[in-house]
Amino acid sequence: MSELVKISKTQFENVYQCEFNDGTTRLCTKNLAPGFSVYGERLFKVEGIEYREWNAFRSKLGGAILKGLKQNPIVKGTKVLYLGAASGTTPSHISDIVELEGKVYGVEFSPRVVREFLLVAQHRPNLFPILADARFPQYYRTLVEDVDVLYVDIAQPDETDIAIYNARFFLKENGYMLLAIKARSIDVTKEPTEIYEMEVNKLKEANFDVLQVVQLDPYDKDHAMVLSKYKG
Ligand code: SAM
Questions:
Q1: pLDDT at 141 over 80
Q2: Distance, CA of 173 to CA of 157 (rounded, Å)
Q3: What is the pLDDT of residue 5?
Q4: 3-state DSSP: the chain helix, strand, coil percent, rounded to 5?
Q5: Rg (CA), the chain
Q6: What is the atom index within ligand 1 of the atom nearest the CA of 162?
Q7: Atom of ligand 1 nearest to the CA of 60
């Protein structure tokens, strides 16, 4: 079993790198819910502070950071609307990053996974699970305030349209969107790069400045994370 030898800051606020005695490194975040592991990730205590390993093979934001994301708009205090929260793996790391000054509203339409997400949120006062279909933001508009960041990972063929529709409801002017695109969910006959370009064009037409497209292989094959800024 490898042992932690060093923990250091990264260029991103509240995102750390841990180094092990076998030479491997991982991302990690400070655990907002000490003692609780969300998806079997390892916990480490250093000088009284507990950190959680952030597995980039289980989280597209983690993968995007390791693949060269230039800017992470999610920092301490950020308010995030997260579409496709599933059982809370990535939302839990975002909850660590934004700390108690921030909020993470997590929309998920599968009752089975929402049950698991609720267990994660029990120990995290800044995480708000919402059982709803992201196609119909009007059903949760009274539960969600305007947000600084919209994070979308729903793997639907019309995901970009759903993301744009939610942005119009909730994303502040000059707010950021992180959109995880699964090429194979959109069109299996086209090259992933062709699909990323199509989706990027939709964002541009909807008044987003596209800042970066990060391909997530090998963490997620045929996936990309698109960072954009909403001009309102
Ligand atoms: N983002 C999660 C993470 O990194 O921990 C993984 C998300 S998983 C790839 C996609 C999730 O989106 C699934 O849990 C699925 O049930 C959910 N989903 C798909 N379509 C949805 C919709 N229209 N509304 C809400 N959730 C949806």
A1: yes
A2: 26
A3: 79
A4: 25, 35, 40
A5: 17
A6: 23
A7: 4
- For residue 94, the CA-to-ligand 1 centroid distance in Å is 16
Handedness of CA 110, 113, 118, 124 (dihedral sign): negative
CA separation for the pair 141, 200 (Å, rounded): 26
Q: Which of 192, 199, 198 is nearest to 215 (CA)?
A: 192
Query: What are the pLDDT digits (tens) for 11-27?
Result: 999 999 999 889 899 99
At 151 the three-state DSSP class reads strand
The pTM of the whole model exceeds 0.90: yes
CA nearest neighbour of 131 among 92, 86, 169, 171: 86
DSSP code per residue over 78-119: -EEEEE--TTSHHHHHHHHHHTTTSEEEEEE--HHHHHHHHH
- Contact criterion met (CB below 8 Å) for 30 and 51: yes
End-to-end CA gap in the chain: 50
